[in-house]
Amino acid sequence: MQRVFSGIQPSGIPTLGNYLGAIRNWVPMQDESECLFCVVDLHAITQRQDPKELLSNTREMAATLLACGLDLNKCTLFVQSHVPAHAQLGWVFNCIARMGWLNRMTQFKDKAGKNREEVSTGLFVYPNLMAADILVYHANVVPVGDDQKQHLELANDIAQKFNHDYGVDFFPNIQPMIQGVAARVMSLRDGTKKMSKSDPSDQSRINLTDDADLIADKIKRAKTDPDVLPDNLAALEGRPEARNLVGILAAVTGTTPEAVLAEHAGKGFGAFKPVLTEALVSHLTPIRAEMQRLLTDPGALDAELRRGAEKADAIAEPILKKTYEIVGFLARR
Ligand code: TYM
Fold first, then answer.
1. Rounded CA gap, 14 and 190, in Å?
2. Which of 107, 244, 266, 317 has the fewest CB atoms inside 10 Å of its own CB, making it the most exposed?
3. Where along this sequence does the record place binding of L-tryptophan (predicted)?
4. What are the pLDDT digits (tens) for 37-64?
């Protein structure tokens, strides 16, 4: 059976982008594969996090994942810092990956901006830890949004170089799984930028915690253009904001952008936006309610996460031990 791994950073409140690009696709995989899903707090601190907020965001993220349909009887859900093997294998990979490879990472360039001297070294080696997250379970399928593709290619380079350098066939090849019309949901303020939980503007995204009024307000103010919707996708070329809203409606209603255009061609955004708002509110309201219910009992949630970490640990530990043996570390016992 294939083993699936994916992670999400508790660096803010989960957005519609996280949901449509990743979380929603994780849910059906639980029925077909052995699945591990992880709230990656070690990754979150590569950029400054307020400790209290990190703690509450970690619980909130776990509650969101459950509210979106992860089922603890079918998958393993845990917090990255609870399983030390991630950081331990991450160190080994720091010694495998090459500076040149990391220098090419577009996400590092975007996040570091012009101020390279000031960003944490953790941000630079972030993809090595991400490779460790996956490979410490010998996971071979990784469902993610489009923005993670380059990191997964690097993870494969690391696995191959490790195997080659040590003359082993130990780490498997990873298959990225990038699905659907919403693999890249864009900002509501700028259709050329990814919707992100760390964007300073709350108006740029729909958070899964937003209530109906807030969703309506954000969609109403979302950037658009004065033209009507065309009857075919090619005609949306050069209209990134319009393309994005059409894609969101298609993803939320389980149809295609082509079908959305067939239904709404000739309408302006004044008519289209209320339809989109309605679809988002009816889709997200039950998720928000379930998330709030789960957060009323943080003790129970923490206990589930501890159980998840134990299950994850039991898979990761022998793989880490074998890695150490391959590298030539003296066995502890
Ligand atoms: P993160 O926390 O930024 O995002 C979590 C998941 O959501 C997807 N995503 C999006 N998809 C579509 N449109 C968007 N606007 C959008 N924004 C985010 C991401 O592609 C991701 O799948 N590095 C990862 C976390 C990670 C990880 C891993 C993932 C750490 N280790 C191992 C897979 C495997 C990240 O920052 O995701």
1. 19
2. 266
3. 133
4. 999 999 999 999 999 999 999 999 999 9
